[in-house]
Amino acid sequence: MPLTRRQKEVLDFIGNFIDENGYSPSFEEVASGLGLASLATVHKHIRTLEAKNYLRRGHNQSRSLEVTPKFFQEQRRYREETSPAAGIPLVGRIAAGAPVEAVAGRETLNFSDFLGSGESYALEVRGDSMIEDHICDGDLVLVERTAEVKDGEIVVALVRGSETTLKRFYREPGDVARLQPANAGMAPIFVPLSDLRIQGRVLAVLRKYR
Q: Would you place residue 152 in the very low, low, confident or very high pLDDT band (cuts 50, 70, 90)?
């Protein structure tokens, strides 16, 4: 039988009190902590929680309440059900100016609501070459790992095997790619397609305001 809202509040209060203090609360402390006017109401909830196998208590003993393994199992299940669905590796930083060497990292971001159909990861932007597309220095971009992109998409491009940059991608005549910044003060980068590897397309941008 599921717990009522008040039964869960009583159980959570007792579990948190034991965790913080190392001993169980008195009935008076439960009543005071939850704003209950009657000790009889506390007794009733505790008897119900005992019957549902969430609590144990020693009879005729003070501060003898003990939460059962069932309580911890349900807490763990709740955390698993409400935790983000996917962890996205924050693999490094990427230039939004001149290309720079990409550096791998170990941090993780949770962006399950923005995921594409394939593998995704995050990068921190450095530079302002994409500022007119509202991608600024310090922003985080969520990237879908793919080598197949359309003209005009914002991509992560590996140039000549060692430098990565964030730009809009366009195919030009003569098997050349144009990596177009979104900044009127910067010139595009022209690269032979043979010297270019597309590592992904941008799905979303996250900005933190301090």
A: very high
